[in-house]
Amino acid sequence: MVATSGAARLRPGRTRRTPAADQLQAGSALALGISTLWFSLLVLIPLAAVVAAAAADGWSDFWNVLTSSQTAAAIVLTVTQALMVTAVNVVMGTALAWVLVRDRFWGRRALDIVVDVPFALPTIVAGLVLLALYGQNSPVGVNVANTRFAVFLALAFVTLPFVVRTVQPVLEALEPEVEEAAQSLGASRVTTFRRVILPALVPAITAGAALSFARGISEYGSLVLLSGNLPNHTEVASVRVLTYIENGNRAAAASVSAVLLVVALLAIIALDLLQRRLRRHEG
Amino acid sequence: MRADRRTGAGGWVLRGVVVTYVVLLVAWPTGLVFKRAFQDGIDTFFSSLTSPDVQHALALTVTVAGWAVVINLVFGVAISLLLVRYRFPGRRILSVLIDVPLSVSPVVVGLALVLVYNARDGWFGTTLATWGFQVIFSTPGMIMATVFVALPLVVREVTPVLEEIGTDQEQAARSLGAGGFQTFWRITLPGIRWAIVYGLVLAVARSIGEFGAVKIVSGNITGQSQTATLAVEQTYQNFDHQAAYAIAALLAFTAMLCLIVVAILRPKEQH
């Protein structure tokens, strides 16, 4: 319903505070109309269709789908693993950002690039990549394929860059004077980090965590080959949706999808509010 | 300039921990896929890419990603301009909604498009089918799914740059008599040129890599509607691991090339 009200309100193409020359007005209104129409046809209406299909058979059917044991297990597994991965990312991501900004050593630049690899790699390739080291033919003899740890591993891989990339620029922009002042007043390094640096990083860490959680909840491609998709054991919510679709049960697929969609929307709205707050602090 | 700070024991430990983490999680496994792809020699690598089905999958990926990137380029720049330069009702909602594709599950994207565009009972699909236009289980649907998932990338790169360069030069150009299009072409576009390039490169990487959404809307038929990422899954599950590793290595190489291009280009912007 968020989607439809958005589409309805976007339709008019008037410009209020107008920085543009008069002749551009008609053109820009047209561009706005076309872009909005395009965006609605591609994104808003299809996503609204998911919500509509989930709601079509009524609340009790929706609830029955979500509480059926296999689906409930998939949702619980997805949320737990995404939360665990997010917690790891908060710690490791912040540490990584710190090392990339404050530390100087040979290979730092390479590390900086490697952190982006999970963003670039196709998800199915990410799954295959992890399978190469942690699957059946592992050169180090570790085989976690088809276990819950495989789910964790896949999510940790694809979400690695989020916290790093949100914290890094904030850390770079921090004024060293405040830290120096704290240290000159006798604060230890740990105290300086905890009392001076960390509070400045919290909004960025939260933003990265929200992104990482949203991504973890919705992950599909990297899990296909790695987790084995065993019902009630390693099957995540996205895989459940796909199974429903393949069985021709679109209403059930839409119900699980609607839940995923709401979580994604909440994460984005939280993020938007956070970024606004951040900008106000900077300004 | 802060590098003069000496690295204490804590610093070494921290450095060791994060480097180990990244090596174990990303660098080593990724390197291994390349090693497996080439372990039987470069000839085997290429011959596993030349089977008709794989060739078709690669060609389809190029087609789908190509169209998706062009569409995202046009609309991405248009939407960025609208969001930054104009005030209209619902502008903030639009700017929030633009980010939705980044965190929606690809599986949900696929389902959403199927619900609206399938020929049997889709909201618009049935009408389009009577016009003889099939979206789902056909290339247009795959392009739509790919456009959807890569949609925010150009916008996210271009909007901050547009905000930063401001409107002074554009207003100057207009006051000197330049038309709207001329101002855009001669003043605005050169200013956001690099942002567009980054956005495009990221969109290319994302587009060739899309898997879940395309799997649902394509029907995933080998030799017909199977893209390269879908072929990786298929060949791996058919125990043709050599082919799976070869396609994966090719995709990974392309994606990482995009990444390196961005990494090399980006510092230039800061001057």
Automatic annotation (TrEMBL), chain A:
Main location (coarse class): membrane
Keyword hit for Transmembrane: yes
Compartments it resides in: Membrane
A Pfam family that the UniProt record links to this protein: BPD_transp_1
Region (Disordered): 1-20
GO MF, one example: ABC-type sulfate transporter activity
TM regions (residue ranges): 29-55, 75-101, 113-135, 147-164, 196-217, 251-274
Annotated Gene Ontology cellular component terms: plasma membrane
Topological type in the membrane: Multi-pass membrane protein
Keywords: Membrane, Sulfate transport, Transmembrane, Transmembrane helix, Transport
Keyword Ribonucleoprotein among UniProt keywords: no
Functional description taken from the UniProt entry: Part of the ABC transporter complex (TC 3.A.1.6.1) involved in sulfate/thiosulfate import. Part of the ABC transporter complex CysAWTP (TC 3.A.1.6.1) involved in sulfate/thiosulfate import. Probably responsible for the translocation of the substrate across the membrane.
Family the entry assigns: Belongs to the binding-protein-dependent transport system permease family. CysTW subfamily.
NCBIfam families, alphabetized: 3a0106s02, permease_CysT
Subunit structure: The complex is composed of two ATP-binding proteins (CysA), two transmembrane proteins (CysT and CysW) and a solute-binding protein (CysP).
Protein name: Sulfate transport system permease protein CysT
Lineage of the species this protein comes from: Bacteria, Bacillati, Actinomycetota, Actinomycetes, Propionibacteriales
TrEMBL record, chain B:
Keywords for the protein's UniProt record, in alphabetical order: Membrane, Sulfate transport, Transmembrane, Transmembrane helix, Transport
Compartmental location: Membrane
PROSITE patterns: ABC_TM1
Annotated ABC transmembrane type-1 domain residues: 58-266
Superkingdom of origin: Bacteria
GO cellular component entries: plasma membrane
Record's bilayer topology term: Multi-pass membrane protein
Transmembrane segments: 12-34, 54-84, 96-119, 131-155, 191-209, 243-265
Record-linked Pfam families: BPD_transp_1 (PF00528)
Molecular function terms, GO-annotated: ABC-type sulfate transporter activity
NCBIfam families for this protein: 3a0106s02
Description of how the protein assembles with itself and partners: The complex is composed of two ATP-binding proteins (CysA), two transmembrane proteins (CysT and CysW) and a solute-binding protein (CysP).
InterPro entries given in the database record: MetI-like (IPR000515), MetI-like_sf (IPR035906), Sulph_transpt2 (IPR005667)
Biological function: Part of the ABC transporter complex CysAWTP (TC 3.A.1.6.1) involved in sulfate/thiosulfate import. Probably responsible for the translocation of the substrate across the membrane.
Protein name per its UniProtKB record: Sulfate ABC transporter permease subunit
Lineage: Bacteria, Bacillati, Actinomycetota, Actinomycetes, Propionibacteriales
